[in-house]
Design a protein that fits this description.
The protein has 206 residues and is of the alpha/beta class. It is 33% helix and 10% strand.
């Protein structure tokens, strides 16, 4: 697009190689599902699908559905919500988490986000500072790398060991971490491997 006044030209144009699918992990999952052999008649459940309503075995409870409908019909929550989440929702989250914690959370300790992507954006933006680095698992969820690059955080990858159920390679972590390491990402249950780390192993990681 070019402006009509003077000599200045606007460079509003799309990068020729860019498509939304290039950035989506979902595109890879969909490609895998397209190539699955359905001829044996066995039902297939796509574990990469995050929509609980798509498969009947993952349906949310009617109580949860009714709560959503009731909230919409009440008109009490119309308009912009608090950036950190509605106070009543944060209180409920804190109360739920406190059942399994040795310490107590208050609603002020809770920051509700619209999905994991926003949570990653906020956390990495808070952690970013000149010279800082972050430890990410390999293999892992690729969005961390993208957001770290945007926040100018140096990424250092520690390995997960497949022969030990994708446990963290602790020696690898010790070799990578230094005084500028601001965080280490643990995805549990693992994505994309689906592993669940044991409590004893998590204590060693901590």
């Amino acid at each position: 697009m070019e402006c009509e006044r003077g000599q200045t030209k606007w460079q509003f144009r799309q990068k020729s190689s860019f498509t939304a699918g290039n950035l989506a992990v979902r595109a890879v999952v969909n490609k895998v599902m397209e190539n699955v052999d359905n001829s044996n008649g066995k039902p297939i459940i796509a574990l990469g699908n995050g929509d609980p309503s798509k498969f009947s075995c993952f349906r949310i409870s009617e109580r949860a559905e009714d709560a959503i409908v009731s909230a919409v019909r009440s008109a009490k929550y119309n308009g912009y919500a608090f950036s950190a989440g509605m106070p009543c929702a944060r209180s409920a989250i804190a109360e739920y988490l406190n059942k399994d914690l040795p310490y107590k959370l208050s609603p002020d300790d809770v920051y509700a986000t619209i999905g994991c992507s926003q949570a990653i954006e906020i956390l990495l933006s808070v952690l970013a500072r000149p010279g800082a680095n972050i430890l990410l698992p390999r293999p892992g969820y690729p969005y961390y790398e993208a957001r770290a690059a945007l926040s100018k955080l140096e990424v250092r990858h520690f390995n997960l060991v497949p022969e030990r159920g994708w446990e963290v390679d602790l020696d690898n972590v010790y070799a990578l971490a230094d005084e500028n390491t601001v965080a280490m990402v643990i995805i549990n249950p693992g994505n994309p491997c689906g592993n669940v780390l044991s409590y004893p192993h998590l204590k060693k990681v901590r």
